[in-house]
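Quick start: what a row looks like.
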Amino acid sequence: METSIQPCALLLLVGPDWRITAVSANAAMIGGQRPADLIGQPFADFIGSKAIHTLRNRLSWLSKDESEVHDFGVEWGDVALDVRASRERDRYLIEAELATEQRLPDGIGMVRSMSDRLNGDDPLKLADQAMRQLCALTGFDRLGLTDLDGERIASAGRSEVKMPAGVEAKTSVPTILADVDAEPVAMVGEISGAQFARASFRAPDEATRDRLANSGVAAAMTLPLRIDGKPVAALHAYHGAPRRCPAERRSVAHLFAERLVARMARQGWTP
């Protein structure tokens, strides 16, 4: 399995002793150190004592390997980052991307407000209303909600932008593709295929790049949706130019979409 990521994100794997066991080759964006020199180094030496304290507190929220946690606008050195982390047994996979906007005033309030704007009890009409709101929130040209077989439930956005065929609806990890033509960044150190599969910013393979490019898509995002922990659907977003929806905004979109499918199920939709 090829292990390379997109250049807009930094990926690290941290072992049970809190030392770095793998890092992406663009690690010099933080502190200017060579990636090879970071292998075996204490993670705290790389991001600073204050940042490691905050991150370890956040990681304590992880209840199981399927869980993930986020932190927005954190500072590693003098760089502001949005961070996503997950766990596989005693190892942590950490992705950090440059923060591109200020913290939202009230992300949870946004989810409540968007949910309150959904009217009626027809599941498909609720989905249509939600897709229009999500287009405005994320800024993507085209959004679609699919079931686990990839069948479209609802979509919204610019009609000239088509949803590519063969979408992956059964992914368990959010996947973000900011620029289909971006040069991949290799990993340094040891990381297994199972660990790397938990990363959101994996570089796309050639078949995926071709499929998206042939549909006129330069950026894409897929968010898996669950009800009570069980996968039921996926939210897909596509854009005709490179785009990375800011991390906190993505989180709001994800939470709202999961509230949507739960409400659809209460109104009779069968996942």
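That is the whole record. The helical segments are 35-38, 43-47, 49-59, 107-116, 123-138, 193-196, 206-214, 247-266. The chain has a mean pLDDT of 91.
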